[in-house]
């Protein structure tokens, strides 16, 4: 049975669609694999942040993109937040945005 990829809102979708071509292509490949196999792809494609929050780890020649997601009932994967990574460590404010949206999506 397949999974469905949803976006938290249109601005999240637009943000990710506006990523550089290579990073966006990586994101699309990973989400297509999630639709087929489920969200537990593991490193280097997905990683858990605990408490039901995960990240998609997209990489291209232009850099690195990260998209946080959570899973809902009925095999729905909700993309909560995306950003282009500029530092080694994921910024706390990016995680905060994703956690707030996760609470909203799961309520």
CATH topology: YaeB-like fold
As for the number of domains, it is 1
CATH superfamily: RelE-like
| Count of alpha and pi helical runs | 3
Biggest β-sheet: count, sense, barrel?
A: 5 strands, mixed
* SS class: alpha+beta
In round numbers, the mean pLDDT is 96
Helix proportion: 25-40%
CATH architecture classification: 2-Layer Sandwich
Helix/strand order, N-terminal first: EHHEEEEH
List the helices and strands and how they pair.
Elements: E1 4-7, H1 10-17, H2 21-37, E2 46-50, E3 53-60, E4 63-72, E5 76-85, H3 92-106
Parallel strand pairs: 1-5
Antiparallel strand pairs: 2-3, 3-4, 4-5
Task: Please give a structural write-up.
With 107 residues, this protein is α+β, with helices and mostly antiparallel strands. It has one domain: YaeB-like fold (2-Layer Sandwich). It contains three helices and five strands; from the N terminus they run βααββββα. The protein has helices at 10-17, 21-37, 92-106; strands at 4-7, 46-50, 53-60, 63-72, 76-85. It has a five-stranded mixed beta sheet. Strand 3 (53-60) and strand 4 (63-72) form a beta hairpin. It is globular.
């Amino acid at each position: 049975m397949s999974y469905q990829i949803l976006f938290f809102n249109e601005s999240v979708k637009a943000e990710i669609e506006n990523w550089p071509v290579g990073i966006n292509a990586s994101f699309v490949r990973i989400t297509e694999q999630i639709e087929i196999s489920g969200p537990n792809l593991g490193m280097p494609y997905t990683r858990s942040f605990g408490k039901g929050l995960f990240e998609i780890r997209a990489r291209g020649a232009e850099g690195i993109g990260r998209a946080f997601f959570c899973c809902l009932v009925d095999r729905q994967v909700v993309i909560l937040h995306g950003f282009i990574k500029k530092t080694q460590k994921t910024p706390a404010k990016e995680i905060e945005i994703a956690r707030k949206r996760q609470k909203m999506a799961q309520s």
